[in-house]
Amino acid sequence: MEKKRKASRLGTICYGLGDLASQFVWTYVGSYLTIYYTDVVGLAPLAVTVIMMLARIWDAVNDPMMGAIAERTRSKFGRFRPYIAFGAPFLALFSVLTFVNPFGGKSTAGVIWAAVTYIIAGMIYTLVNIPYGALAGVMTEDADQRNVINTFRNIGMNLGMVIVNGLSAGLALKFSAAGAQVADGHGYMMVAIIYGIISIPMFLIVALTGKEVVQPVNEEVRGFSFKETIANLVNNKYLMIITLIMVLQMTAFMGRIAVTAYYVIYCLGSFTMIGLIMTIPSIGGIIGSLFVPFFAKRFGKRNVLMGAMAIQAVGLFIMYLAPFDNMNMVLAGDIIFGLFNVGFPMSLSMVSDSVDYMELKSGVRTDGTAYATYGLATKVGNAIGGAFGIMIMSAFGYVANAEQTVEALKGINVTVNLIPAILFVVSAAACLLWDMTDAQADEIRRKLAERHTGISYEEEINADLVGAAKAV
Q1: How far is CA 356 from CA 298, 353, 367, 411, in A?
Q2: Helix %, strand %, coil % of the chain (to 5)
Q3: In this predicted model, what pLDDT tens digit does every residue of 375-430 receive, in sequence order?
Q4: Which of 23, 154, 327, 375 is least crowded, fewest Cβ atoms below 10 Å from its Cβ?
Q5: How many whole angstroms separate alpha carbon 341 and alpha carbon 337?
Q6: Cα separation, 144 vs 19, whole angstroms
Q7: What is the pTM of this model?
Q8: Would you place residue 3 in the very low, low, confident or very high pLDDT band (cuts 50, 70, 90)?
């Protein structure tokens, strides 16, 4: 058979730099913006909720639209790489502007400024991250290498989280006013500037090394139709299943990140422990990711994803049940949660499978719009955690910059640990809806390869035999 087109070793390894860069900008925003809004700027919890949910409503339109535009793009650099290179500097800029508010949260202008900068930052994240996610599916035709590429992405993600979660609190405190016990606005802004500068060259390296070898069978560039874009998403049953899984998964994971700082500061009683509690899952994820390709090949992507999320839920249940002064129990749950933080490369590989399925079914390849669901799930999860998380905590009696009541501490614990644990259980159960085996996904790719070449597998074998006989 014709040799499968694959990504270079350099491109495979460097692909992880894109998610590493994303952590420096978007995960930093997701981890600290909520507490910056409430405890530094002074925004009311309701205002934070409205801002974040308005941004997500717009993303429901913007993300699929960006995916459709990207997959219709034709350039000598490919469909997706130009957006990564072009958008990186603007993403860095607006990640900084979200931590700048010259008006204050009590004024209308302050609320408007927060809303505009946050929404634009999310749009630019879409501009960069959707093409970045789609790039993995077109760098290689080999399913095992896709798993490896997405594993490097997961390593990049977790390494970025190790750095961001391990250093951010200390750096923000260092850049804050002398004698401050918690970070102030200047501290948060300075960290955002540092991370933004670091992220730009990483994205550019991905754009330079991530060659696009998989191209649509139909080279005709279709005009953009929002109705057609949505239809392509909805009619792809496997994409709908993995989107449901990812929304639950991301709400549990990214949503939890958005409010973990409250748990560490108020329940565990130490701002400086944010680095430890938020870094352990990322280190565990890096260790666990090293074994993902082996277990995915042995047990299948769906089963690895399902099992990992179920065990993550166990770790969070342990943290929820742990007394706040029992650090051994808290850390044990955190370690279990982290070691099985390996589901993301499986989710991404399953998105690739859903794209292949849709191309075989309809003749239309929708890499961009399909990977838009991953970016949207990330932002929805983060927003739900930040927006509804702060509302739930407020319902239990949370008051910014004050000593919390027993009931308020309970509400923080429920928000940060119990609700995400339940969501992971539901997400693991949703995996049962996915009935495409890895063998069936490989067969789909074989049929697509026949369409690309116009030669069937049997014809290639016969041609090889004839060629061998002539050589003899």
Answers
A1: 22, 5, 9, 44
A2: 80, 0, 20
A3: 777 777 767 776 788 888 989 998 888 889 999 999 999 999 999 999 999 999 99
A4: 327
A5: 6
A6: 20
A7: 0.70
A8: low
CB 281 within 8 A of CB 337: yes
Burial 58-76 (b: 16+ CB within 10 A, else e): ebeebbbbbbbbbbbbeee
**20, 182, 249, 278, 456 from 161: Cα distances, Å:** 8, 21, 17, 8, 46
253 touches 374 (CB < 8 A): no
Q: Domain residues of the chain, as ranges?
A: 9-212+225-456
Mean of pLDDT values over 32-36 = 88
- Let me know the angle formed at the C-alpha of 117 by 37 and 104, rounded to the nearest 5 degrees: 40
Confidence of residue 116 (pLDDT cuts 50, 70, 90): very high
8 A C-beta contact, residue 192 and residue 96: yes
User: What are the backbone angles phi and psi of residue 453, rounded to the nearest 5°?
Assistant: -90, -20
Residue scoring higher pLDDT (323 or 255): 323
Nearest-10 Cα torsion for 208, 214, 217, 223:
-40
Instruction: Report the CATH superfamily, name and number, of domain 9-212+225-456.
Output: MFS general substrate transporter like domains (1.20.1250.20)
How does 332-347 read in b/e, with b if 16+ C-beta sit within 10 Å? ebbbbbbbbbbbbbbb
